[in-house]
Specification:
Blueprint: E1 2-9, E2 17-20, E3 26-36, E4 43-49, H1 58-71, E5 87-91, H2 98-106, E6 109-113, H3 138-146, H4 149-156, H5 158-161, H6 163-172, H7 183-201
Length: 202
């Protein structure tokens, strides 16, 4: 399970907000987000906000995913002794905050959240083993976690789990903007887009 988001340009909606785009410019946009299942690229929760900052979005989106799984009777993974296993979830650095890390952990998640951007042509960080120092901050603990072999594998999986979902919606299906206006209607439109994505996957 992993989190990812894209903001979609929208120039004529008073409820849209100015947001930075991947082309380094700024456009009026909504922030459309989704939680995607790692095995089948099924979207398990989807939300739209007009907040440009993602730091407050990871927890409610993760909770929505858990609620949807519970509503469908899908049990969380368990260890051999029957105890619940935390669900790994990966988020880009825009979602990072100490509060998000701690709250996702309390919800039964195993968050892997980037703590910063890696520059192009920058050498990858060396692998680390074992636990972080006892006095490490939440950010230092997360940085250590992402440098372990497991952490690197999980975060790298975003490239073939999350990225293709938005590529399929935007490029393969040609959905690059919303047709409706207003946050409530745009949210319903995004839910419909995600629903049809899931039907195509099935």
């Amino acid at each position: 399970m992993a989190l990812f988001y894209r903001s979609v340009p929208n120039f004529t909606d008073p409820e849209a907000k100015i947001m930075k785009q991947s082309n380094k410019g700024f456009d009026y946009s909504f922030n459309a987000q989704a939680v995607v299942d790692a095995e089948n690229q099924i979207i398990v929760s989807a939300e739209v906000t007009n907040a440009a900052n993602d730091k407050q979005q990871g927890v409610p989106l993760g909770q929505a995913a858990l609620d949807n799984l519970d509503a469908e009777g899908i049990e969380r993974p368990k260890a051999a002794d029957g105890t619940p296993v935390p669900i790994p979830n990966t988020l880009d650095n825009g979602y990072f905050s100490e509060e998000a890390v701690e709250e996702l952990g309390r919800m039964g998640m195993d968050p892997h959240i980037a703590t910063g951007r890696q520059k192009h042509n920058e050498a990858p960080s060396p692998l680390v083993e074992g636990a972080p120092p006892a006095d490490a901050s939440v950010k230092e603990q997360m940085r250590h976690k992402l440098r372990t072999a497991t952490g690197k594998l999980l975060y790298a999986a975003r490239k073939h789990i999350i990225e293709p979902v938005f590529g399929q919606i935007k490029s393969a299906r040609g959905i690059r903007g919303f047709l409706l206006r207003g946050l409530e209607k745009v949210s319903a439109e995004w839910q419909l887009i995600c629903l049809t994505h899931n039907l195509l996957k099935m």
